[in-house]
Write a structure and sequence with these properties.
alpha/beta, Leucine-rich repeat, LRR (right-handed beta-alpha superhelix), nine-stranded mixed sheet, two-stranded parallel ribbon, 3 helices, 13 strands, globular
């Protein structure tokens, strides 16, 4: 057998670790470069008399949110009909820790999204409108109480319609655990549930003024008596297109 000195083993181990670190750095740089290249494919519109931008990144087959050279300049981001199945933690924060601090509107319609990690919306301190319409977020909405936590002080409009696919358990109610932190929410669009009153937890949504059940794939045929008692400040209810046979306030 050929003798191997301990220092040779240490040297080999150090070389292997250095190589692994280098490969990881290359992968990270490649990913960042890829995200930046993706952003270049987006269409943009300059907000009049400013340096702010509205970005249209819809229909691009993106699997994650692209990075932008000047994220603080973007006020509106359209990511409709991509392939973003999961929103990862800090999805809207770049590697330097810069968030999209002027972003007011995000649309992620039709991405077949199934999951949102608890810190996905970190850095969106000005976000007022969030569209998650037509995804597959039933499990995420009904099992998490923290996905909207970063938006609790600023979100005004939330659209989570058409996120229930197929049948649901008989005792399923509305996703108040996920919605409860949104104390600034004024307008909520969601799937209606037949014969289900609003949970008392909706009282936490003290700013809610408009509730929309229209446009979902589920008919609300029967609304129980006093179903809307938890939202006394509600001024507008839209249930157009629903096949109702009973509704009492």
């Amino acid at each position: 057998m050929i003798p191997v000195e301990l220092k040779d083993l240490d040297r080999a181990s150090h070389t292997m670790k250095a190589s692994a670190v280098f490969i990881l750095q290359v992968l990270v740089q490649t990913l960042v470069s890829s995200r930046g290249t993706m952003a270049q494919n987006c269409r943009h519109q300059v907000v009049s008399n400013s340096k702010l931008l509205k970005m249209d990144c819809s229909h691009k087959d993106f699997t994650f949110v692209p990075s932008f050279a000047e994220p603080s300049q973007i006020t509106s981001l359209n990511l409709d009909f991509n392939k973003i199945s999961v929103l990862r933690n800090n999805e809207f924060v770049d590697r330097s820790g810069n968030g999209m601090i002027n972003l007011k509107s995000v649309s992620l319609r039709g991405n077949n999204m199934t999951s949102i990690e608890r810190s996905a919306f970190n850095g969106l301190i000005a976000l007022e409108t969030l569209i998650l319409h037509n995804n597959s977020l039933f499990t995420a909405l009904y099992t998490s109480s923290q996905i909207f936590q970063p938006l609790q002080n600023n979100l005004r409009v939330l659209d989570i319609r058409q996120n229930i696919k197929g049948s649901i358990p008989p005792k399923t109610g509305y996703p108040i655990r996920a919605l409860a932190p949104l104390r600034a929410l004024e307008e909520l669009l969601m799937d209606g549930l037949d014969r289900k009153p609003l949970d008392p937890g909706f009282r936490k949504l003290g700013s809610l003024r408009k509730l929309v059940f229209a446009g979902g794939r589920r008919d609300v045929v029967h609304i129980p008596d006093s179903a809307f008692r938890p939202v006394p400040h509600l001024t507008e209810l839209d249930m157009s297109g629903q096949s109702m046979s009973h509704c009492s306030f």
